[in-house]
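User: Can you help me understand a structure? I only have the sequence.
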Amino acid sequence: MSKRMTTWAAIVLQATLFAGLSLAADDPAVLKDLTAVIALQGQPCGQVVTATQQGDNDYIASCQDGSRYRVFVNAQGRVVVQKQ
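Assistant: Let's start by predicting it. Here is the structure, written out as C-alpha coordinates:
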Protein backbone atom coordinates (compact mmCIF):
# COMPACT_ATOMS: atom_id res chain seq x y z
CA MET A 1 0.00 0.00 0.00
CA SER A 2 1.28 3.45 -0.81
CA LYS A 3 2.54 5.70 1.93
CA ARG A 4 -0.03 8.33 0.93
CA MET A 5 -2.97 5.95 1.48
CA THR A 6 -1.55 4.73 4.80
CA THR A 7 -1.11 8.31 5.96
CA TRP A 8 -4.65 9.17 4.89
CA ALA A 9 -6.02 6.16 6.77
CA ALA A 10 -4.17 7.26 9.90
CA ILE A 11 -5.54 10.78 9.58
CA VAL A 12 -9.11 9.54 9.18
CA LEU A 13 -8.92 7.24 12.18
CA GLN A 14 -7.18 9.77 14.38
CA ALA A 15 -9.59 12.52 13.40
CA THR A 16 -12.47 10.28 14.39
CA LEU A 17 -10.88 9.41 17.70
CA PHE A 18 -9.56 12.84 18.68
CA ALA A 19 -11.85 15.44 17.12
CA GLY A 20 -14.38 15.39 19.89
CA LEU A 21 -16.88 13.21 18.05
CA SER A 22 -18.94 10.82 20.04
CA LEU A 23 -16.80 7.77 20.67
CA ALA A 24 -19.74 5.41 20.92
CA ALA A 25 -18.62 2.28 19.10
CA ASP A 26 -21.85 1.98 17.10
CA ASP A 27 -21.85 5.65 16.10
CA PRO A 28 -22.52 5.69 12.32
CA ALA A 29 -19.57 8.05 11.76
CA VAL A 30 -17.19 5.65 13.55
CA LEU A 31 -18.53 2.67 11.59
CA LYS A 32 -18.08 4.57 8.32
CA ASP A 33 -14.53 5.60 9.20
CA LEU A 34 -13.58 2.06 10.23
CA THR A 35 -15.01 0.79 6.94
CA ALA A 36 -12.82 3.28 5.04
CA VAL A 37 -9.68 2.41 7.02
CA ILE A 38 -10.14 -1.34 6.47
CA ALA A 39 -10.73 -0.81 2.74
CA LEU A 40 -7.67 1.44 2.42
CA GLN A 41 -5.58 -1.31 4.00
CA GLY A 42 -6.77 -3.63 1.22
CA GLN A 43 -8.77 -5.97 3.43
CA PRO A 44 -12.14 -7.40 2.33
CA CYS A 45 -15.03 -6.21 4.45
CA GLY A 46 -17.83 -4.57 2.56
CA GLN A 47 -19.15 -2.49 5.42
CA VAL A 48 -18.52 -2.42 9.17
CA VAL A 49 -21.81 -3.20 10.90
CA THR A 50 -20.70 -3.20 14.55
CA ALA A 51 -17.61 -2.12 16.44
CA THR A 52 -16.46 -2.61 19.99
CA GLN A 53 -14.02 -0.15 21.48
CA GLN A 54 -11.22 -2.00 23.28
CA GLY A 55 -9.38 1.11 24.44
CA ASP A 56 -8.12 4.42 23.14
CA ASN A 57 -7.54 4.11 19.40
CA ASP A 58 -8.41 0.40 19.49
CA TYR A 59 -11.53 -1.20 17.96
CA ILE A 60 -12.78 -4.65 17.01
CA ALA A 61 -14.82 -4.18 13.83
CA SER A 62 -17.31 -6.76 12.55
CA CYS A 63 -17.99 -6.62 8.83
CA GLN A 64 -21.06 -7.27 6.74
CA ASP A 65 -19.32 -10.30 5.19
CA GLY A 66 -18.68 -11.88 8.61
CA SER A 67 -14.99 -11.03 8.93
CA ARG A 68 -13.60 -9.28 12.00
CA TYR A 69 -10.66 -6.92 12.29
CA ARG A 70 -8.79 -5.20 15.08
CA VAL A 71 -8.11 -1.60 14.05
CA PHE A 72 -5.70 0.34 16.23
CA VAL A 73 -2.94 2.93 16.24
CA ASN A 74 0.45 1.44 17.14
CA ALA A 75 3.25 3.08 19.14
CA GLN A 76 4.68 4.65 15.98
CA GLY A 77 1.35 6.37 15.24
CA ARG A 78 0.44 4.09 12.33
CA VAL A 79 -2.97 2.60 11.80
CA VAL A 80 -2.86 -1.20 11.92
CA VAL A 81 -5.61 -3.54 10.69
CA GLN A 82 -5.31 -7.15 11.92
CA LYS A 83 -7.65 -9.93 10.84
CA GLN A 84 -9.18 -11.67 13.87
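Now, to help you interpret it: The longest helix spans residues 3-18. The CA atoms of residues 1 and 38 lie 12 Å apart. Let me know which part you'd like to focus on.
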